[in-house]
Amino acid sequence: MTSSADAMDRFHAIIPAGGVGSRLWPLSRQDAPKFLHDLTGSGKSLLRDTWDRLLPLTGPGRIMVVTGRAHRAAVEEHLPALEDHNIVLEADPRDSTVAICLAAAILERREPGVIVGSFAADHLIGRLDLFEKAIREAVQVADAGFIATVGIKPTEPAVGFGYIREGARLHIEGAPSARAVDSFVEKPDLDTAKEYVRSGRFLWNASMFISRADLLLAELERNRPQLLEQIQELAAAWDDPARRGPAVDRIWPKLEKVAIDYAIAEPAAGDGRMAVVPGLFDWDDVGDFASLAKVNSGGRKTDLAILGEHARVLSDAASGIVVSQSNRVISLIGVKDIVVVDTPDALLVTTTEHAQRVKAVVDALKLTGSSNVL
């Protein structure tokens, strides 16, 4: 086995920057998706936050971003240090398996033996020292021959996340907290989530995956051999501009849309090839406006969180969140857990309890052909 330093020297980060974040409509749009927004008032987009937290682990030359063609200019503006050969443009979205495995296949061709880690572009993470510690452990687990994930220690019985059931402790040098993954579990109901938290054996699934690229691709071959063959054909042509375009035109429309959890992680766990490192850092996927309200109010439900550089909000005995992108004065009196999102062409009013239902509004707008507000 290689040394800890050698493993980190071979580590590359992959940032899949896709998805609209439809539960954050009308703030998040097709032309301005969630990862390009500053959702905390920090002055930095979620994408830039992701880049900055990975930089100490990789340096600027070992971060690859996978995004849609329409977002290239914005991604390059947010990440001026991103090297041109490390941006992978998707012809259209094909879900996380294609995004992550294509990047892994390209990197493996450039540098055989590379270790890759995939990190969503639109999550919030705090206590970065603990984040770095967990990733360094996961890299050692990957170097030992497992596909590793980082599971988040639950702080509450959340029903909006999938869970990971921990198995036996693994004895891997440099990774004292690593355990086998018994199974991945879909989003539970509240009573089941409470049981999970009480047991102490379950972690939130944050969809971070760290693996030797060759092992990740071998796992895909076991479960989706045709998809792996197509990805390898794309990767073989990727660094040749003359071959890339024709290969994409020919292969991309045929690629299966499937999440990496189903194509790789769950089958690998069933066969004993999946490991988990518990993450003790703060984490939130900011999946809806209820989550955004919680993040921006420090978890205090009695507070009103306000986002927007020029927001003009008057409130009296109100709680929840207001996101303002207009010059209108917004006045809230005696309303609890309110969600108000005011943009120049769309207004959303709901409550934090019903925040998950925003996606249904977006789906309805698609059916009516209202693409101008999507």
Structural class designation = alpha/beta
Strand content: 15-25%
Overall average residue pLDDT: 94
> Quick one: biggest sheet?
5 strands, mixed, barrel
* Unreliable stretches covering 5 or more consecutive residues: none
Radius of gyration: 21 Å
Q: What is the β-strand count?
A: 17
What is the ordering of alpha helices and beta strands?
HEHEHEHEEHEEEHEHHHHEEHEEEEEEH
What is the overall shape? globular
Number of helices: 12
Instruction: Give the % helix.
Output: 25-40%
| N-to-C span | 50 Å
Give, in spatial order, the strands making up the sheet with the most strands: 6-9-7-8-10
Structural commentary:
With 374 residues, this protein is an alpha/beta fold. 36% of the residues lie in helices and 25% in strands. It contains twelve helices and 17 strands. It has helices at residues 4-9, 46-58, 72-78, 95-110, 128-143, 190-199, 213-223, 225-238, 241-251, 260-270, 289-296, 358-367; strands spanning 11-17, 63-68, 87-90, 115-118, 124-126, 147-152, 163-169, 179-185, 202-212, 274-279, 282-284, 304-307, 312-316, 320-324, 329-333, 338-342, 347-351. The strands form four sheets. A five-stranded mixed barrel has the order 6-9-7-8-10, surrounded by four helices. It has a four-stranded mixed sheet with strand order 12-14-16-17, covered by helices on one side. Strand 16 (338-342) and strand 17 (347-351) form a beta hairpin. The radius of gyration is 21 Å and the shape is globular. The model has no long low-confidence stretch (mean pLDDT 94).
